[in-house]
# Entry
Amino acid sequence: MSATRLALGPVLYYWARERVLAFYAEAAEAPVDVVYLGEAVCVRRREMRLADWLATARRLAEAGKEVVLSSQALLESEADLRALRRLAEAGTFRIEANDMSAVGVLAGRAAFVAGPHLNVYNARTLALLARLGAARWVAPVEISRAQLEAIAADRPPGLEIELFAHGRLPLAFSARCFTARHYNLQKDECGFRCMDHPDGLPLHTADGDPFLVLNGIQTQSARVYALLDDLAAVARSGVDIVRISPQAQGTFDIVRAYRAALAPAAPARNPDAGAVAPAPGEACNGYWHGVAGLATIRPEGRIG
Amino acid sequence: MELVCPAGSLPALKAAVDNGADCVYLGLRDDTNARNFAGLNFDVAGLDQALAYAHARGRKVLLAVNTYPQPDGWGKWTRAVDLAAERGVDAVILADLGLMEYAATRHPDLRLHLSVQGSATTYEAINLYRRLFGVQRAVLPRVLALRQIEELVARTEVEIEVFGFGGLCVMVEGRCQLSSYVTGESPNTAGACSPARAVRWEETPGGLESRLGGVLINRFGAGEHAAYPTLCKGRFEVAGELYYAIEEPASLNTLELLPELARCGVRAVKIEGRQRSPAYVAQVTRVWRAAIDALAANAARFAVKPGWDTELRRLSEGRSQTLGAYHRPWK
# Structure
């Protein structure tokens, strides 16, 4: 089996165009193998137009990256479907299908990535998606090691498996925009307030614990999913690619830390060594260990 | 317009049938359905009794097998589908692609409904299920506006069912992992959201606190109605402001939209609440039956009767109601 590869997930927040372009200029130089591009969260976010994404995609491809264009997770209207078709017809880049609408558009026409927002929880479903053209599957964020290993054992020949390994977890989508709701604005007159929150808008419990993050129509975990100390087990479980989800600061420090940990014969990291980059929240890894996602479980073989 | 009502028990099924449900949907007593709560749902004998009662009165029974089969439990889900076919269930409500393929291949005469847990919000998605499995009906997530529903109905031959009344998921169904983030169990994996075993109530000097998996969901002052701690319906603090940051505890009620839904070509209205009592099911079913009959008798003069409104409001979560995404302010 080849070495585990590293992917940069799509930027889930709404950043200004210059910030996005600077981010991907840095990505082109960073030790990542795969880069996912595009706006997967909110159709109203248009700092980057399709032409901008495609130009960025070409620059990254020239830098030797595999580029995938991520499609919307929630489609509601004919306009959303038109945007999806434009993305699918845009060119030579593979699409990450984050909704069955995208699978419908791509099935039998082009190989695609079955994204983390398709509900794939068993090998039968995965086999069916592979027959429709899925070349890679990004597991749902709530998947456990045991579930993933069971599915990987029955995976269709040639199908790659990717795991969301680092970042705030995208947990839910709604028709309602919670950022606009916070500002007492209607969704289609939202004033693009998401742009004021490059790591999302934190939500705390009434007793002050960071709990979730509002990111427009998406709700994320406040804790940062971090499988850095579980990477050896991740690599053994059948995962081909691990995904790092961009955050406002320090993403490429995280990339370098994961790259170092994935290197052949990398020494196990001391889990007490702490964060490798400034993190917007505490770490968690519960999903991987089959418990509540927000939990933190000491990596195997270590006494906590 | 068909009226599709919930039953978590045989008495609830009888209440639904006796009060005018066209179809009753129910689940088996395990994690193959998305209302996997203790003391709820049907075993095989109960399913047979439900079928006998409903079929004798010309009504249909739909079996929800609408969670996602987990790797170690595939056989449990296929047995549920086999059971539906053997016992003469009128349709199965499925979400998982693999399970749908199994049902379509093994039981080609079994009618398939796409569950709301399948998260299909466009005709492209719904038509894919039609092409692959011959799905005959799709239940829409509670996220679309009326105009969007109308666009969708016009572009598919699959019958469309929408939620009319009951608990409201503010998130796209099948696209929400908040519950497993806090408790380890989600609708997709375990058939439960905010499961009761993870709930703790505690009287504190600051008020009555509800916690889910240890996370403070709400704190109620004296005289406040203390709603169940469904985690998206808690009071949280955002930028110094404590409020229902995601959604208020409120029930969806679209009774006033009934003529619009019919005009859009919606074929069935679904009442949420398999976890509710037979008395609740009876009352809600009676009101909706009366409304649908009034619409059929004279669509042009349809109006919500004050009595219907009073009765439904009394049955609503937190005693308040919303039109959800059907209504423009969400958009």
User: Anything to note?
Assistant: The CA atoms of residues 231 and 262 of chain A lie 7 Å apart.
